[in-house]
Amino acid sequence: EARPQSRPYMACLKIQRGASYIHCGGFLVSENFVLTAAHCQGDNITVILGAHNVWKWEPSQQRIRVRRQIPHPQYNSKTLKNDIMLLELEKPAKLNGDVKIIPLPRMGECVKPGMVGSVAGWGCTVAAAKVLQEVDVEVVVDNKCLVYDYYDRATMLCAEHPQQWEDIVPGDSGGPLVCDGKAQGIASRGSRPGKIPGTYTRVSAFIGWIHKEMGVTAQP
Fold first, then answer.
1. CATH numbers and ranges of domains, the chain
2. Residue 16, beta-bridge partner list
3. Which residue has the higher pLDDT, 57 or 97?
4. Which run of H or of E encompasses 163?
5. CA 150 remoteness from chain centre
6. Of 4 and 44, which is predicted with more confidence?
7. What is the pLDDT of residue 220?
8. Which residue from 11, 22, 139, 165 puts its CA 20 to 30 A from 124's CA?
9. Is the dihedral of CA 60, 22, 33, 188 positive or negative?
């Protein structure tokens, strides 16, 4: 379990698809935008910010509807290539001690094998997690993920738990892989513990697209 309010950039997405609901993770990258995975699209999405227990109301929470879903134009739902999406909020998030923006990497910034980062989410553990869970993962060599036919070294990261018994689970998709305080990856495909690492969208490969869609000037 994560320490309450230790990850103020985390967003829980309540996604309506027809008559059913699913959950994904995401993270706040500006007052008006949340970044997540493109496979977390839905008919309607509500973003919950500042939460620890998403199954009850907390004074720290902000619940904001999504005005516009912006999946990457080259997203492929079969291969999960370009699995990245911006969500424009209906109203700006109020930044405070419980709700903060996480920095993004520079364009093309490298994440080397052996780096240890962390992922978090409200996905299914034994049952659906009510409170935010977290786990450390290690970035590993791309060759370990080549078992996935469509693994793309340029736009994906390969990572696993060092002991290979914990990793991202259903409901964690879209959450950030955080290394050195930056959102370097987006949870895309979970691992098979002890067998195949998980894959993450490499955020640094999409900085130009992110800034273009958000209408901001790219970092030098």
1. 10-101+209-214 (2.40.10.10), 116-204 (2.40.10.10)
2. 21, 44
3. 97
4. none
5. 20
6. 44
7. 40
8. 139
9. positive
Q: Is the pLDDT of residue 127 over 50?
A: no
Helix (H, G, I), strand (E, B) or coil at 194: coil
Is the pLDDT reported for residue 33 higher than 60? yes
Classified as helix, coil or strand, 6 is coil
CB 56 within 8 A of CB 193: no
In contact, 30 and 86? CB cutoff 8 Å? no
Q: What is the mean pLDDT of residues 39-46?
A: 95
**pTM for the whole structure:** 0.90
Output the average pLDDT for the chain: 87
Residue given tokens 């008919």 in the structure block: 43
Instruction: Calculate mean pLDDT across residues 14-25.
Output: 91
Q: Which residues of 149-167 are buried (b: 16+ CB within 10 A; e: fewer)?
A: eebbeebbbbbbbeeeebb
CB 16 within 8 A of CB 40: no
**More reliable by pLDDT, 22 or 40:** 40
Return the ∠ at Cα 200 (arms to 110 and 1), rounded to 5°. 110
End-to-end CA distance of the chain: 37
The set of residues, in sequence order, having a beta carbon less than 8 Å from that of 180 and lying 6+ positions away, is 115, 117
Coil, strand or helix: which one is 207?
Answer: helix
Residues annotated as catalytic are 39, 83, 173
CA atoms within 13 A on the CB side of 42: 22
